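Why show two proteins at once? Because comparison is the fastest way to build intuition. When a single record is shown, students tend to memorize it. When two are placed side by side, the eye starts asking what differs. So, the first record is below.
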Amino acid sequence: MIYYSNGVASAKSRELFSRAFYDQLINAKDYESCLELVLSTTTFAGEECDVDKFLDAKKQELFDFIKHNSPINEIIDFFLLAQDYENLGVICRLVKAGKNLHGTLLSGKTDSKDLCEFVKTGISRGISKEVIEAYKGMPKDLSLAQIDLYYKQKKYETLKSKMKSQIMKTLLFDILDLQNVCIILRCEKEDDFQKNRVVVGNLNDKLLDKILKRDETVLFELSGLTRQIAQIAFIKNKQKAFSLIDKLSNELPLLSIKPFAKDTDTIAPFLDYCFSCLAQLKNIKMVLSLKKNGVKCDFDNKILGVSYGKR
């Protein structure tokens, strides 16, 4: 299955935009010309001009591709089960605010319409037991922001329990580390951090406590990507620190799976395509947004993030 999945992903990766094509988008004279270039490609041919809608449609296509072609269930959980938690958070916030759901949410392991039905009626159709338990265990007096935090924390707790292969654990733990460092930057007080933090990755409670207290000796206990992530917390310029977090969050998936690229029977090529595809959608949205607002595009300074597929 791994060889088949990697082969299919490798074939589809040929559809990803090259650096040369990004240069064409950047050099387009205006927003309309840039959008026309995007819609002229094989990948986006025939799509409507509503950018958000066609990008969401492509993301849904990727999720469906993962569901039907993933070599291991962990990848499905990493992308699709995570989406279920995010969808449930959105639905619960809308219910709390007394609003109806407008538009369609992306579907993960469960059709988003079935999640809406579950919240309304309690009828569960193919919904993961972890998601059901999270909903039933949610305190009823949470604010809108607390609902968002609750499902974020539950999502990461569940994913940590399900990631068994070394490559998926490495990927998730790096993401957890970056999340917690970001929370440390936002929450200077320990009580606030403890309320908002997610489950630990490579940075355990003891290490996170040192980072929270800005004890630089912690850096001598760390190495590689984990150390790089922790160092961000010690940057005094908050704007620069958050800018680095944004940049690293785009690059992190590829950096995490890179050490496994040459392993026998690796799932890295499949993951590389998945993250490449997501990066491409982010890049397209950003280029079009910059063009629409008359802001100069600068690929080399990473304003567009990272294009993983064709570097």
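Second record. Ask yourself what differs from the first in the token line.
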Amino acid sequence: MYVALSFALAACAEVGFNYGLFRLLKKNDALYIRMIVFSVGCAMLGRVFEALQLLVNGQIRSGFHVGLLGIIGSFMFLFSANFGQMDSLVDDGSKAFKKTRIIALAAPAVVIAIWCVIPATNGFSGTTIPYAVVSLFIAQAAYFHLKHIIIKDVDFGLIRAIRPYNIVALIYAFLCMVEMTVKTFNLPAVCIIIVYILQCAVMLALMPVLERGVNKWTI
């Protein structure tokens, strides 16, 4: 069952990556869009590795492995897209946005809180420490996703157009954290099934939702 779920998630990530590669990048080669497409590509590589590990070895190696690099790379690109390309356009650093910046801290706080449950119960180990590294990348990306969901829009509806994308990306971040928790505590199989199904849906939705928003930039 886990093999089938892993291959399904890898396939959905590949579909999302190809969608972004052949549809979004052919229409718009903005660096912001490229980074998000590459984010899905990293997720795809990580999920392919995990699926092949399960197929060949019957389990995913505990501790740090190449699959986690895919997740780290995915959120590194999501963070870079929002922080490097978009945030300076919507936040000039003035006090007017101070409240927004503070509220946005709720997202990384939830991410860190979810991770803290793991070592608090199981202690520090070869699994919890790599998860801590992954969680830091997820946390910094989650901050900007929430910030760009709630921040006041700039002229021409730049942020409003991509709010649905940021919502989907934030859900993706939280699902990755829930996946870590489910795997760590060996929760019932139905939990991992639900998490993987939701992640499949996110991988399939991310690029089309982004495309719909980006298309509004030209209207």
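One difference worth noting in the second protein: The two ends are 46 Å apart (CA to CA).
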